[in-house]
Write a structure and sequence with these properties.
By secondary structure, this protein is an alpha+beta fold. About 35% of the residues lie in helices and about 15% in strands. It is built from three helices and three strands. It has helices at about 15-20, 25-35, 50-60, and strands spanning about 15, 40-45, 45-50. Strands 1-3-2 form a three-stranded antiparallel β-sheet. The longest helix has 9 residues, at about 25-35. The chain starts with 12 loop residues before the first strand and ends in a 9-residue tail after the last helix.
Length: about 70
């Protein structure tokens, strides 16, 4: 899997694979996608996160994402 370092390389709607490409482990990605406070969009059975909303959410966490 290609590691992505520039968020502009990411698609507007990020999948679990895209989150893994920026450094999140597979188990962490699925924990994040199940959290109520993460801005997830469901399309059918799949879950996506809008790129800019995700990074805005991530900036507000101050380490809380590692604790949940």
């Amino acid at each position: 899997m290609k590691k992505i370092t520039d968020k502009q390389e990411l698609p507007i709607m990020m999948s679990a694979e895209d989150l893994q490409a920026i450094g999140f482990s597979r188990p962490m990605v699925y924990k994040l996608l199940c959290r109520a406070d993460v801005p997830v969009v469901k399309i059918g059975k799949r879950k996506f996160v809008e790129r800019d909303s995700f990074f805005a959410w991530l900036r507000t966490q101050n380490g809380d994402a590692a604790n949940n």
